[in-house]
Amino acid sequence: MSSKKSDRYEDSITDPVKVSPPEGEENDSQSDGTDREIKQIVETGSITVDKRGHYIHCLTIIGQIEGHYILPPQNKTTKYEHVIPQLVAIEESRDVEGLLIILNTVGGDIEAGLAIAELIAGMKTPTVSLVLGGGHSIGVPLAASSAYSFIAPSATMTVHPVRMTGLVLGVPQTMSYFEQMQERIVRFVADNSNISADRFRELMLATGELVMDVGTVLDGEAAVNEGLIDSLGSLSDALDKLCDMIEENNSDSNGNEDDS
Fold it and tell me: 0.90 cut: is pTM over it?
């Protein structure tokens, strides 16, 4: 652990990490750091906090995942062109040791959501996700993409087939495209959770659960029982688990250095 981090052992979740001023410049006042933190929350819906001496970045994925087309201004959206650079910066950061993803999404653009999920799944930085409210549609792969996942007991996850709005050509090639995209999602979820591909397809194509659609709605406990999510939990559980993963990761790194 660096000297900067080892000097701070107390939790300070309410005090976001201050952004260091450029070399040669001094921080004029405490309010400057606070203004930057507020600006970070407003612009990106994210913040970096200090927990048990570890710097953790909190990323929120809310509303609808916005992809290649801009959604109406009244929609709450998560823009993938904002999230992807953040994930790259977190992975390359020397200070940020863990990533907490908080999900409350109705789904959205499949390719954009799957791109974000693939990036999270490929990170070496310890990652934990927490589903609050809902993790519907493409939110399911996003929740499963982290190294460990939690869901609140009151939250739900909706599993349904791939759908598309707007003009759709009724030709065999369109159906084949839908099937291929759906299979990509099934494979990703099966590879990154404890549910089998066959069981996930069964939930996806179930009838009698939704009035106007096929699919399945799972509450928190059912999502855990099905293997989509690792555990029931809250914010404190997710943060504690992430800190444990960070400390284990640091211990393994120090052990490898000693061996060399």
Answer: no
Q: For Cα atoms 240, 81, 179, give the angle at the middle one, nearest 5 degrees.
A: 90
CA 5, CA 81: separation in Å to the nearest integer?
A: 31
3-state secondary structure of 186: helix
pLDDT string in tens for the chain (260-residue length): 444 444 443 443 334 344 444 444 444 545 565 555 545 555 555 677 788 888 999 999 999 999 988 899 899 999 999 999 999 999 999 889 999 999 999 999 999 999 999 999 999 999 999 999 999 999 999 999 999 999 999 999 999 988 776 666 777 877 788 889 999 999 999 999 999 999 999 999 999 888 778 999 999 999 999 999 999 999 999 999 999 999 998 888 777 666 55
Pairing of strands 96-108, 54-66: parallel
**Span between the terminal Cα atoms of the chain, in Å:** 18
Residues annotated catalytic, as ranges: 137, 160
Structure tokens that stand for 223 in this block = 């999502």
The domain spans of the chain are: 3-259
Determine the residue type at 33: G
Which of 187-193's residues contact partners 24+ apart within 8 Å by CB, and which partners?
188/114, 188/117, 188/118, 188/121, 188/141, 188/144, 188/145, 189/140, 189/141, 189/144, 189/228, 192/117, 192/121, 192/141, 192/144, 192/145, 193/144, 193/149, 193/227, 193/228, 193/229
Instruction: Name the region of 192 (left: φ>0; alpha: ψ -120 to 50; beta: rest).
Output: alpha
Domain 3-259, what fold? 2-enoyl-CoA Hydratase; Chain A, domain 1 (3.90.226)
